[in-house]
Design goal:
Layout (H helix, E strand, L loop, with lengths): L10 H8 L14 H34 L5 H26 L1 H13 L8 H35 L6 E5 L2 E5 L16 H45 L1 H8 L5 H28 L1 H21 L7 H40 L8 H14 L15 H21 L1
Helix pairs in contact: 1-6, 2-3, 3-6, 3-9, 4-8, 5-6, 5-10, 6-7, 6-8, 6-10, 7-8, 8-11, 9-10, 9-12, 10-11
Length: 403
């Protein structure tokens, strides 16, 4: 009985995402409808938890903003978590419910079945890319889990800090999260701690798995472009493998297949851009505010070791997330422009006029880079990271001036 879809590339993201129920149910347990129904119910429960978690974050933020005394450290802490999980929640809902998400997954599954031109060298290129993507995915997961675990260990219930504010004595207990509870958090601290511990790890799984899924979807075209570049560069060898008879019609059939592969890569990127357009814009706009909120905590008084650990782990995690998305997208853009060079390096001058004309058309199309878009804000690239960090600097400068 197959649990996951028959796709080597999707194997790791499917395993990760299915543990929290965000991998589309139609691709799970396809041979067993009962288990598929159970998984579907499990997915709804987990997504409901994610939405509920984000809602309690926003309720707590409203309470903090409307209180008589503004605790800027707590507000910054809450804002970091709230913005992050809003993006993650939106991505999770889109991945699970959107028909376009299912179509994107199905297109990858279908493309893996087309292998009649792939030889040992093509398989080697694909496996190399697959190993790289999997290694990054596993390392990212370990890093995120380590960050959360260190935070949870430090926040383990201990003697509360007693702070004297004038004539008032304030008892402060360490909390892992800034979420709303319908009861007194200090009175039932142990219960709150256990719930926060569960929420912390579930939330961490959502962040890690959604990011891994997104990273794999962004990185997928790179591996396909690598294979396409190799075949285009050695086109004279591959057309000979297709047919022992060398004639213009057979050669054109082979080249037509390569053009179709290029079109599928373009369609994958366009479909992803359409699917994640709103989330990409929101994440780009709020990333700088998110990082700034984390940094401003380190400049406030009464900074605890727990807060410092959170600030450092959160900031490093955010920077890793930015590079995970934007650097992978930048790689795809760079590889897409190399296709024209590979055709030029082939024995194009030995081909028929019809093939030469087709090659020229591909070269012209390859001059337009393939890009993952941030809505109307441009392309996802390394330059986008610089833009986010510049905006972060502006936010922090403004915050310091106001204080």
């Amino acid at each position: 009985m197959a649990v996951y879809p028959k796709s080597e590339y999707l194997k790791v993201p499917a395993i990760y995402c299915s543990t929290i129920g965000i991998f589309p149910w139609k691709f799970m347990f396809q041979d067993n409808k009962n288990l598929q129904t159970i998984y579907r119910c499990y997915s709804i429960v987990m997504l409901a938890w994610c939405i509920g978690f984000v809602v309690t974050d926003y309720i707590q933020l409203v309470i903090l903003l409307t209180s008589k005394t503004l605790d800027m450290q707590e507000i910054s802490f809450n804002t970091c978590i709230t913005l992050l999980f809003t993006c993650i929640g939106l991505r999770a809902v889109i991945v699970y419910f959107s028909p376009n998400s299912a179509n994107l997954i199905q297109s990858i599954i279908d493309s893996e079945k087309v292998t009649y031109l792939d030889d040992a060298e093509c398989m080697k290129l694909e496996k190399k890319h697959l190993r790289s993507v999997r290694l990054i995915s596993h390392c990212y997961f370990i890093f995120i889990i380590f960050s959360t675990t260190s935070r949870c260990v430090y926040s383990f219930p201990k003697e509360p800090d007693i702070i004297q504010n004038g004539n008032e004595t304030e008892i402060v207990k360490e909390h892992m999260l800034s979420i709303w509870f319908p009861f007194n958090q200090e009175k039932y601290y142990l219960t709150v701690y256990n719930i926060e511990l569960l929420d912390s790890f579930l939330g961490t799984f959502f962040v890690a798995y959604v990011d891994i899924y997104t990273f794999n979807m962004i990185s997928y075209p790179k591996g396909q472009l690598k294979k396409l570049q190799h075949i285009m560069k050695h086109f004279h060898n591959y057309k000979a493998k297709y047919s022992s008879e060398t004639n213009e019609e057979n050669d054109f059939i082979v080249f037509k297949d390569l053009v179709q592969r290029h079109k599928q890569i373009i369609q994958h990127i366009n479909a992803f851009n359409e699917l994640m357009e709103f989330v990409a814009i929101f994440e780009f706009v709020q990333s700088s505010a998110q990082i700034a909120c984390g940094l401003t905590q380190s400049s406030l008084e009464n900074l605890t070791i727990g807060s410092f650990l959170f600030v450092m782990s959160f900031l490093i995690s955010m920077l890793v997330r930015l590079f995970l998305y934007y650097y992978a997208a930048n790689d795809v853009t760079v590889e897409s422009t190399k296709l024209a060079q590979c055709i030029w390096e082939s024995n194009w001058y030995e081909e028929s006029q019809k093939i030469k004309l087709s090659m020229l058309m591909v070269i012209i199309r390859a001059q337009k880079p393939l890009i993952f878009k941030i809505g109307g804000f441009g392309a996802m690239s390394v330059q986008s990271i610089v833009t986010i960090l510049k905006a972060t600097y502006s936010y922090i400068t403004l915050a310091y001036k106001r204080t």
